[in-house]
Amino acid sequence: MHVKGLSESDRSLTALNLTSGHNSIDLRSWGDADKECQNRMGYLASIHSDIENKAFVSWTDQKNVWIGLQRNGWGGWDWVDKTPLDFTKWAEGEPSDSGETGEACVELYTNGGWNDAFCSTTKGFICKKHKTYSTCAYPIDQRDDCGYDGISEYECISRGCCWDEAGSGPHPCFYSKADSACIEKGGTCKDYRYVSCELGYETNLCSGGAENQCCFSCASDDDVCNDQADEWEMGDEQCEAGGYGTCQDDSNYCASGSYESGKCGGPTNRRCCVGWCNTWL
Ligand SMILES: [Ca+2]
C-alpha cells in the first residue's frame, strides 16, 4: 500500500508537549490524543532520528508518552502523519504483541525505547505540528541568523527560532529581532499555555501575542541544573499526592488559576497549581 508522505520540507517543525505538568486530566487514550493533536493542526509525533527521539524523551517529564505510530493491519506500522517509517527504536523484546487486536499503539519509554501498548490506556502524549508560514512570519529585514551551518530543523525550532527554506542567509534558521532579548538571555519563546518550563517564564521578551513568553529550562546536558530540579521535586509530595496538583514555577500557566504556597520543594516561587478543576484549554 502506498501512502502519500509529506515532503521533507513540510514535515514537522513544531512539536508541542501537551503533557506539561502531567496532570491526570491531560492523559488520553492513543485515539483521543491524536484527536487532540489534530484539533491543534498537528498529529501525534512521528520520530525520524535518534536526535529527535532523545529530544522528545527530554520533554516528557519522566513519563511514558504516546507517539504517532500504530499497527497498520498489514503486519507493519505506520506513522499517523504518513511520514515514512525510516527510523525505529524498539525497546528490547518489543514489539511484544504479534496480534492485530492487542498492543497496537506505540509509547515512548523514558529511556527512549518504544513499546507497543494497548491503545485504550491513557498516557501523556506529544504532538508535532507542521511548519506553517506563521512560524517564520516576521519580515526578512527583521530576522537575524540563528544557529550554525548544518543546523537541523529540529534544533532550530528547539532554540526558539524559525525555519524558512525560502529565506536568505547561510542556513534556513532565523530568529526575529523582536525575540532576540529572550534568546540572548538563554531562553526560548514559547506559547506558555502549552509548555511548562521548570525555571519559569519571563514576559515582554518575545514577539507576537501575550501567550508568547520567554521560557527558561535546564539544558539537557546541564547536570547541575537538572540535579537541582530533581532535588526540588523531592519536596513536592504534599502538592502532588493523590493527583491534587502540580508543582511548578508560578510564572507557568495554571489552568485552574489557583496556586498554593508551602506545598512544593525548591524556591518560594515554586508553588502548587491546584489540579482538581484543571480544564483543557
Ligand atoms: Ca509491548
UniProtKB/TrEMBL annotation:
Domain of life: Eukaryota
Cysteine disulfide links: 136-162, 146-161, 156-173
The keyword Metal-binding is annotated on this UniProt entry: no
InterPro entries membership: C-type_lectin-like, C-type_lectin-like/link_sf, C-type_lectin/snaclec_domain, C-type_lectin_CS, CTDL_fold, P_trefoil_CS, P_trefoil_dom, P_trefoil_dom_sf
Domain C-type lectin: 28-128
Domain P-type: 134-177
Disulfide bond among keywords: yes
UniProt keywords, alphabetically: Disulfide bond
Protein name: C-type lectin domain-containing protein
Annotated source species: Clavelina lepadiformis
Taxonomic placement: Eukaryota, Metazoa, Chordata, Tunicata, Ascidiacea
